[in-house]
Amino acid sequence: MSGGTGWIAAAALSLAAAASAPVVRFPAPVVLGAKSVSAVADAGDERARLLAAARSRTAHVFLHLGGVSAARPPGVIWRVRIAGRAVGAVALYGTGIRSEPRFRPARFDFVCDGAIAAALADGRGRIVVTFAPAGPLARPRASVRVERVDLRVG
Questions:
Q1: Hey, how many other C-beta atoms are within 10 angstroms of the C-beta on 116?
Q2: H or E element: which one contains 150?
Q3: Which residues contact 4 (CB under 8 A, 6 or more apart)?
Q4: Most buried residue among 19, 30, 38, 82 by CB atoms closer than 10 A?
Q5: 104 Cβ partners below 8 Å, 6+ apart?
Q6: C-alpha to C-alpha distance for 101 and 32, rounded to whole angstroms
């Protein structure tokens, strides 16, 4: 069975991200709507730690989005970029939809080693996470609220 263990690796990475504490926190909440929006943070004293993890073969830098919710399915996905590099996408279908009978907020964990290394390459320590709407609808049916945006090392 080819590729049958890929989900195991993804689950292990997600558990590593969930178990690790935030290293850099971005101002939140972030509200995703019809236009691109960015969250900006300074790596500060954590710059060296983030770079070491981004270049490591045994550790990773994760972008964690927590407490993600919308009133109803937005019908749009948001592409997530750091330093112009794609790191993932936010899509809500079921989990994270407040109108669902068993509501629970969604969370996303994206490995972003290369993007963090690129963002910190200039030596300034400024990290910009950009959320850009994409998909078949020109405008989302509902905005999405992201309660927590942070970087973690695991």
A1: 29
A2: strand 144-153
A3: none
A4: 82
A5: 95, 96
A6: 23
The pTM of the full predicted model, rounded to 2 decimals, is: 0.87
Write down the residue that tokens 């939140």 correspond to: 28
pLDDT value at position 93? 87
Q: What region, left, alpha or beta, does residue 67 occupy, with left being phi > 0 and alpha being psi -120 to 50 degrees?
A: left
Residue 129 token pair: 């996470």
What's the pLDDT tens digit per position in 2-12?
455 444 444 45
CA–CA distance, 63 with 12 (Å, rounded to integer): 15
Q: Can you spell out the DSSP letters for 40-100?
A: EEE-GGGHHHHHHHHH-SS--EEEEEEEEEBSS--S-EEEEEETTEEEEEE--SSTTBTTS
